Amino acid sequence: SPSSYAMVKQFYEDYGLSAMPNIKMGQDVNYALGSIFQLRSFPSIFVYDQQGKLAKAFVGNIGIPIILEALK
């Protein structure tokens, strides 16, 4: 996220993400990930398989059912 560390941490805690070891969040202060992942908008969600390979990428606002389907 390009948001402040305080905002990222608050979001991470408010939504219980800190209790889920497989969910990682971070702050991209230099906007490096935007170039690496060719981000066009925020939010962007990336789902990786058990081997650490990108399985699905979502750009923009999407519904939870779509994310859950990608996790199957």
Layout of SSEs?
Elements: H1 5-14, H2 32-36, E1 44-48, E2 54-59, H3 64-70
Antiparallel strand pairs: 1-2
Concise overview:
The protein has 72 residues and is of the alpha+beta class.
Please list the strands of the largest sheet in the order they lie side by side.
Answer: 1-2
Radius of gyration: 13 Å
The number of distinct helices, counting runs of at least 4 residues, comes to: 3
Mean pLDDT: 84
- What's the quaternary structure here? single chain
Class inferred from helices and paired strands: alpha+beta
Number of strands: 2
Q: Tell me the overall shape.
A: globular
What is the H/E string?
A: HHEEH
Largest sheet: 2 strands, antiparallel
Beta-strand content bin: 15-25%
Low-pLDDT segments, ≥5 res: none
Distance between the termini: 25 Å
Overall helicity: 25-40%
Number of domains: 2
